[in-house]
Records
---
Amino acid sequence: MTDLLELDRQLCFALAATNREVIRMYRPSLEPLGLTHPQYLVMLALWEESPLRLGRIAERLHLEPATVSPLVGRLQEAGLLTRRRSAADERAVDIALTEDGAALRERATAVPGEVVDRLGVPLERLERLRDELTSLLEAAHRVP
């Protein structure tokens, strides 16, 4: 008889444990850049599009604005981004890369390949897994 509450049968456990270990694999690549993994995610969003509003960054990262705000503050203290009142809407704050923040992108281009090498899993398999996880995330968002 199968025990439905067996730890190793739980999707939540597999995802949480894998998440911790994969993020740990990023640390040796991110430390020389002066970034934590959550800060790296903020920078990835801004390297795609800058400036962005805090709410949009939070939305892109599937996080609450209150979680993203301190990350933005630390990145601003590090000189990688700025926060300025929007010219179009004084109530809004635009978060934009500084020259240093934009320049860091070039050094960060090595990160994905280094992580793939550390994992030792073929890139094609990782891409399929990413796509499956993205589908799972979308399904989870549809649940009220």
---
Amino acid sequence: MSDDPLIRVRGETVLQVEPEIAELTVHLQARDMDRRRTLDRLSARNQQCLDLIKTYGEAVERLETTGLVVQPVMRERRRDEKVHRYQGTVRIHVTLTDFGVLGELVTRLGDLELTAVQGPTWALRPDSPVYRRARHQAAREAVGRAREYAEALGCRLTGLVELADEGLTTHPQREGYALAAAGDLMRAQSAPEPIDLEPETQTVRAAVEASFTATAPDDL
């Protein structure tokens, strides 16, 4: 093992960047005394919602059905199996890249019958180049800090012993908006005015720990 002095440092960087995608979750509901009519209503509302979202073309990066539930609702305070009604829910996940149409889409979805919209959740893509930039800056910060320590002691760095990735995390993401519509109570005679939604800044952190060999200090 080398007897060269070691300098151990931590390099960290924090970037504030604009989001790359916005995600919405849409919940569609249907209910009726008859199971078949419940299914038919749910299917029709699901198709109406999908057709609306697809009109936004390339602005929609991903469209996924993430849940479907159809269940009986029993009468309260009864011990028999008497069904009061049936209700169904479909959950749809939407990922958008064009924030210019986001406010319009949210209001149009919220104007649909028995529909709830959650979001937007702002985010970066998993393979965003921002993460790479943050790691590079963290590594350079570690080298610069080690050099400062070496200069303060009157020595110089001679080699890298180890570089460990301490982790990389993002901190978006509050749900920014929620809108629920219930039948004619929320239905306007014409398309609703788009809501102005401002993208939430994303915080990206990267940190590394590094060890460097160095020459002996001048004073030793």
